[in-house]
């Protein structure tokens, strides 16, 4: 094989390898976004149907996004984030599980759900404690 032919083979192989790496990275990113959306949806106690309704998309699309089979546009990602009461940045924040701090807004909302029907004084006290805890976390 002459030198020119050898260079073309190396260049083609490099492009192919780079293409496969990019595709693998794309798949991994889609999965991470989907996992984060699923985690936040479940933290709110919502079904895929409820998230879909609030975001104005089909529940099948939510399922595909959560499984990493679909790559949502920035617009759809924003609609999902708004529905989940968070920001697109939070959905794309991939720290290690041990480094992740719970979203105080989600915790606060879950706490309020648990306190429905409880005496008003008790609810007010726990609400103040939760607000103070959320302030300290930030």
TrEMBL record:
The keyword Mitochondrion does not apply. It holds the Pfam family HTH_3. Keywords: DNA-binding. InterPro entries: Cro/C1-type_HTH, Lambda_DNA-bd_dom_sf, TransReg_Diox_bact_type. One of its GO terms (molecular function) is DNA-binding transcription factor activity. Residues 37-91 form the HTH cro/C1-type domain. The keyword DNA-binding applies. PANTHER family: HTH-TYPE TRANSCRIPTIONAL REGULATOR, METHYLPHOSPHONATE SYNTHASE. This is HTH cro/C1-type domain-containing protein.
């Amino acid at each position: 094989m002459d030198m020119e032919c050898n260079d073309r083979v190396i260049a083609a192989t490099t492009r192919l390898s780079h293409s496969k790496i990019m595709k693998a990275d794309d798949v991994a990113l889609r999965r991470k976004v989907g996992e984060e959306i699923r985690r936040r949806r479940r933290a709110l106690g919502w079904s895929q149907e409820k998230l879909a309704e609030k975001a104005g998309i089909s529940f099948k699309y939510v399922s595909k996004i959560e499984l990493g089979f679909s790559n949502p546009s920035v617009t759809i990602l924003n609609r999902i984030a708004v529905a989940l009461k968070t920001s697109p940045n939070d959905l794309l924040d991939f720290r290690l599980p041990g480094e992740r701090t719970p979203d105080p807004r989600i915790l606060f909302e879950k706490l309020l759900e648990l306190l429905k029907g409880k005496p008003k004084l008790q609810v007010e006290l726990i609400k103040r404690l939760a607000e103070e805890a959320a302030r300290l976390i930030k």
